[in-house]
Write a structure and sequence with these properties.
The protein has a domain of 287 residues. The protein has 20 helices and no strands. 45% of the residues are buried. The protein starts with 20 loop residues before the first helix and ends with a helix. By secondary structure, the protein is mainly α. This is Choline transporter-like protein.
Length: 503
Amino acid sequence: MSDSHSSSSSSYDSASVGPTPLNVVESHRSTDGSHPFSQELTPMGSRHWRDVVWMLIFLAHLIVIGLALGVSGLDRFGEKDRLNAYSCMFTLVEETDDLTEDFWPLYAVTGGVGTLLGWAWLLWFSAHANQVMKFMVHLLSTYLAVISVLCFWDKQLFWGFAFGVAAAFQFLYVISVIDRLPFTLLVLQRAVKMVWDLPEVMRAASISMLVMLLWLALWSFGVAGVLASSIGDFVHWWLLVVLSVSLFWTGAVLCNVVHVIVSGMAVLVLIHGGREASSMPPNPLMHSLRYAVTTSFGSICYGSLFTAAIRTLRWEIRGLRSKIGNNECLLCCVDFLFHLVEFLVRWFNKFAYVQIATNGKSFNNSAKDAWELFQSTGVEALVAYDCSGAVLLMATLLGGLIAGTCAGVWSWIKCHNRLVMVGSTAMLMGMILVGLATVVVESAVTSIYLCYAQDPLLICRWDAAFFDQMSEKLHQRLQHRSARTREVSSHRVADQIQETIAI
């Protein structure tokens, strides 16, 4: 939440704000030396099916979209209007000689580039985390600006303006959070360490990427058929938007399935003190996978519709809010949006997937419980300070932009009139493929925070030095929040006194 609205963590805003590392552990230790929160986090026992309606909606959507993609691709595969798929729905406004196979190779290139970028990014980050984070943070703004210039050069004014605005927002966001990057790097390094200690996680990510590539083969086949059809640009864009939303939802669901699997594995590792502990359950990957694709799949489908968009909007508003200054009118408007987004975050946040993995609750209950836990313990101040999610999103966006650029350049040479359509859809494909690689790190980050809030000793046993650094930073953030609260209160009292005197 905002620095000036921290009533939920008021118990920490006293003279002794923030617990010391030893006190954090002792405060969660029961009289018999056990750690009750560890029992709550253990993903064992029977599960109930949750959010089943959303699972059925998602599966029905896959069937309908899959059939539509197959028909669309076949309609122009090998010969024009083989099935007359569009003639009964739309009035053909132009005649083209394009075929599905004219565009399909462009998306094949995108799939290959996106897959290579995802794994290259993960391998590079594991070896040179500091350099990679600086590279991602600064290169994205530059890349967006370059694409904006190229769009203006090609007289694509709308896209040039859009990429230019995106570059400006990215630059402002980086400037607003530059002081948070050292702590973000620390968290990401530990998350990568956890991921690489779990070879099963990498296998799960590899399988998910293969599944996504198979779906993208069908999706791009259908989109290539749409691009080759002679239905006019307006209908082209309308169909591409519908198919892109479908792909976004499908990609988000698959990413969050991996998220739940990795979270379940990470929590088990933290609870049992390591991957090789004798108390670890046999075959933990299948243990997490079974719940992710059965009883909790509906919750994943439901949450995948909203979490990414709300989280991105929250980051942007936070960055904008910190740079407004004393413009009361603008600050009032942004504050309204800020609190609206914070309300939505309470019901749609990425930490819900950890609760889904460990407790099998519905998505909304998981999101609400996770957020209330963070606020009641004060850990929300640490979560709000960390920018690891934003850095991972930058990596995903950059990967998508590079993949889209590769397809766009080929399209500019081969079929210039479809440049923007091919480039935008290829960019979405690249983002999803890179996101499947980065989600394993994000899952480890969210698991670390939730376990720290539930039972700090779990983090202390896993990495004592990291635990001390987290506790020290939490203490600093709670002190900062308390100081800001006192400052705002004193200003309000002063304003009330001045108003009284004026009256």
